[in-house]
Design brief:
Layout: E1 11-21, E2 25-29, E3 37-42, E4 45-50, H1 53-67, E5 81-90, E6 96-102, H2 110-122, E7 127-131, E8 133-134, E9 137-138, H3 147-150, E10 154-155, E11 171-172, H4 177-188, E12 193-200, H5 205-210, H6 237-253, E13 258-262, H7 271-286, E14 290-294, E15 307-310, H8 314-322, E16 326-329, E17 351-352, H9 357-361, E18 372-379, H10 387-394, H11 397-406, H12 413-431, E19 453-454
Parallel strand pairs: 2-4, 6-7, 6-18, 7-12, 12-13, 13-14, 14-15, 15-16, 16-18, 17-19
Antiparallel strand pairs: 1-5, 3-4, 3-5, 8-9, 10-11
Helix pairs in contact: 2-4, 6-7
Bound molecules: ligand TNX.
C-alpha cells in the first residue's frame, strides 16, 4: 500500500496489521522540515506529527491515499475500510510547487477554480498562479474601474484552434472581490497560496479596450485572436497611477507575499515601458510584497530583487539567479501543459512541442537552491474552452510534475508508470477527473480538423 503513494514520500516503514477507517487522527506539532509530517499508523490509532498547517494538510492527503480511491469520492460509499500500519516521514523537495491556471483566455467559473484547488492539494502542490488578465479577457473586478470587467471581461468570438477561422461564439466572465477572497481562503485551508497575476505592459488589450486612454489608439477590442499582440500600455504617469490603484486593490484581496505583474512578450517596448515595469515592481515592494515577473523583465535596468518565472528557457533562470533574483523554473520546453501530449494526429488541437507524461516526469531544473524557489507547470488556456479540456491537458501530466516537485532522489519512470496507472488514475477517476488516457484520447476528446500550431 505504501508503495502506491504519489508523490513518493521521503521514507516509509510498513508494519504488520491495519487500522480501521475512519478513525480519529491525533494531530501534534513537531519539529520537522517546513511542510513536513510524520504519519504513524498502528492498529489502535493514527498519529500525525506536523511541522505546520501545511504539514498537517499533506499528512491528511497521504492518509487519504492509503485509504484507497474511495476516499477521493465526494461521499463515503463503503464501510469496513482500513489503512495499513506503518510510518511515513515526508517533506517537500521544493518550497514552490506551482501551477499556473490561465483564466483570462477562457474564463473558469469560481466552482471550477475551487475544484482545481482541490486537485492541486491532492498532489501536494502549493502555489496556484492565477493568470487573471490578458489580451483576451480581464477577470478581476476593480470597483473603481468598472469597465475593466463590463467591457474587458467579454469578447464576441475566438479563433478556432490556431487557424484563421473565428467561431463567432461570445464568452467571458469575471470574479468579484468576494469570489476571489473565497478562492484564497479555500486554497489557504489546503496549504495553497494563490499568487495573482495582472499582466503589464503587454498582454493588456482587455484593459485597453475598457479604457483606451491607457494606450495610444482611440479604440481597442478585447482580442479575438491568439498570439503576441503589439498593443502595449502606454507608459505614462496616468497609466502608472491607474495600475498602482489596480494593484492596490489586488493587494487588499490577495495576502500572497508574491504578486505577479507579467512583463512577458512586449514587442516594440521602449526604455519607458521598462521603467513602467520597474516602477510597478517598486510599488509592490514598498507595500511589503515581492514582485514576480516573467524572465523578459531581466531587460529592465535597475530592477529590484524579484521572483523570476523562467519560461523561455533554463538559461534565463540562471541569468536571473546571477543577477540576484529568486527563480521559479517553468520552462516551456518541459512543463507547458497546453503543449501537445503526443505526436499522434488524433491529439486534440496540437500546440507547441510534444511533452509526454514521461518528459514531464523527467523534468529537472538546471538551477539549485538557494536561488531556486521551485518549479511551476503552466496551463495556458487559448485552446481550453471547458474544464473538461483543462482536465485532459493537465492530467495525468500534473501528477507526474507533482512528484518531480515534491520528491527528492532519482526518479524512475518504469517504477512511476505502474504506480500512476494502477493506483493514482483510480484516484483521479474517483475525483471525476477526465484525464488523458495513457494510450491516447477517447473519441470525444479529439478535435478532428481543428488546426493547432505544432512546433
Ligand atoms: C507564452 S509563457 C505566453 C502565454 C501563452 C503561452 C502559450 C508566457 C509568459 N507567455 O501568453 O499563453 O506562451 O504556450
Amino acid at each position: 500500500m505504501f508503495d502506491t503513494l504519489l508523490p513518493r514520500p521521503v521514507s516509509v516503514t510498513p508494519l504488520p496489521g491495519s487500522c480501521p477507517w475512519p478513525s480519529p487522527v491525533d494531530v501534534r506539532p513537531a519539529d520537522l522540515p517546513a511542510e513536513g509530517y510524520r504519519l504513524e499508523i498502528d492498529p489502535g490509532g493514527i498519529r500525525l506529527f506536523a511541522a505546520d498547517a501545511a504539514g498537517e494538510s499533506h499528512g491528511r492527503q497521504t492518509l487519504r491515499q492509503l485509504v484507497g480511491p474511495d476516499a477521493f469520492r465526494a461521499a463515503s460509499i463503503h464501510s469496513g475500510l482500513s489503512v495499513p500500519c506503518g510510518v511515513v516521514e515526508d517533506h517537500p523537495r521544493f518550497a514552490w510547487r506551482g501551477c499556473l491556471l490561465d483564466v483570462a483566455r477562457h474564463f473558469r467559473t469560481k466552482a471550477e477554480v475551487l475544484r482545481f484547488v482541490d486537485l492541486l492539494a491532492a498532489h501536494k502542490l502549493n502555489v496556484l498562479n492565477l493568470h487573471l488578465t490578458d489580451d483576451q479577457g480581464w477577470r478581476f473586478d476593480v470597483p473603481r474601474f468598472p469597465r475593466l470587467t463590463s467591457v474587458g471581461g467579454w469578447r464576441p468570438s475566438s479563433m478556432t484552434g490556431s487557424g484563421g477561422a473565428q467561431d463567432g461564439r461570445p464568452h467571458g466572465g469575471f470574479y468579484t472581490g468576494d469570489d476571489l477572497r473565497e478562492i484564497v481562503a479555500y486554497a489557504a485551508a489546503r496549504a495553497i497560496t494563490v499568487v495573482p497575476e495582472i499582466d503589464i505592459p503587454g498582454h493588456a488589450r482587455a484593459a485597453l479596450a475598457a479604457y483606451p486612454a491607457l494606450g495610444t489608439s482611440s479604440s481597442y477590442e478585447v482580442w479575438t485572436s491568439w498570439g503576441i499582440s503589439t498593443s502595449l500600455l502606454s507608459p505614462t504617469k496616468s497609466t502608472l497611477d491607474f495600475f498602482r490603484a489596480v494593484f492596490d486593490h489586488l493587494l487588499e484581496i490577495f495576502p500572497s507575499p508574491v504578486i505577479a505583474l507579467g512583463g512577458d512578450e512586449t514587442p516594440g517596448a521602449t526604455g519607458e515601458h521598462r521603467e513602467f515595469v520597474r516602477l510597478l515592481a517598486e510599488h509592490l515592494l514598498a507595500r511589503g510584497r515581492t514582485p514576480m515577473g516573467w524572465d523578459e523583465v531581466l531587460d529592465v535596468p535597475d530592477l529590484p530583487p524579484m521572483v523570476i518565472g523562467s519560461w523561455q528557457n533554463e538559461a534565463a533562470g540562471l541569468r536571473a539567479a546571477e543577477a540576484g533574483h529568486d527563480v521559479v523554473m517553468c520552462p516551456e520546453q518541459h512543463v507547458y501543459l497546453d503543449h501537445r501530449q503526443s505526436a499522434h494526429p488524433d491529439e486534440p488541437i496540437p500546440v507547441g512541442w510534444v511533452h509526454t507524461l514521461e518528459d514531464v516526469y523527467a523534468y529537472e531544473p538546471a538551477l539549485t537552491e538557494p536561488r531556486l524557489r521551485g518549479v511551476q507547470a503552466q496551463v495556458w488556456s487559448e485552446h481550453l474552452d471547458s474544464v473538461r479540456r483543462v482536465d485532459y491537458m493537465a492530467f495525468p501530466r500534473l501528477s507526474a510534475f507533482a512528484e518531480a516537485a515534491w520528491s527528492s532522489g532519482p526518479r524512475d519512470y518504469a517504477e512511476f508508470l505502474p504506480r500512476l496507472r494502477d493506483h493514482h488514475l483510480p484516484r483521479l477517476d474517483a475525483l471525476g477527473v477526465e484525464y488523458r488516457p495513457l494510450d491516447g484520447p477517447l473519441p470525444w476528446q479529439t478535435r478532428p480538423g481543428v488546426p493547432g500550431r505544432p512546433r
